[in-house]
Amino acid sequence: GNVQLADLLTREVTIASSNRAEGLVPADGDSILMQIKIPAAEVALGYFSNETERELLGQEAYREKLAGGIINTITKACEILDGLGAEE
């Protein structure tokens, strides 16, 4: 589900970037996430209005860490789904 995917995404990106998580926030009623029929999550990787985050996001190595966390999430989610299909 969405919450499980969002939790996994938050953990993986936080670990990969050696950063801290702000926690999960429910999607509002206007979000595209409310219309999607498969598990989906939105992640905010930083805010340009925050000077420290803006500086980090300007570093290619940091962006690669964030991308690695997203890749790990997709890989683990697929492994979980494959495992569920094997039980049928």
Q: How would you explain this protein's 3D organization?
A:
This protein has helices at 2-17, 51-57, 60-86. It is an all-alpha fold. It contains three helices and no strands. It is globular. The two termini are 18 Å apart. The mean pLDDT is 90.
Structure summarized in a few sentences:
With 88 residues, the chain is mainly alpha-helical. It is built from three helices and no strands.
Task: Provide key terms for this protein.
0% strand, mainly alpha, 88 residues
Q: Whole-number radius of gyration?
A: 15 Å
Ranges where pLDDT stays below 50 over 5 or more residues in a row are none
Order of helices and strands: HHH
What is the overall shape? globular
Main sheet attributes: strand count, strand direction, barrel closure = none
**Percent of residues in β-strands:** under 5%
Helical proportion? 55-70%
The number of E-state strands comes to 0
End-to-end distance: 18 Å
Structural class: mainly alpha
- Number of helical runs? 3
Determine the mean pLDDT: 90
Topology of this protein?
Elements: H1 2-17, H2 51-57, H3 60-86
Helix pairs in contact: 1-3
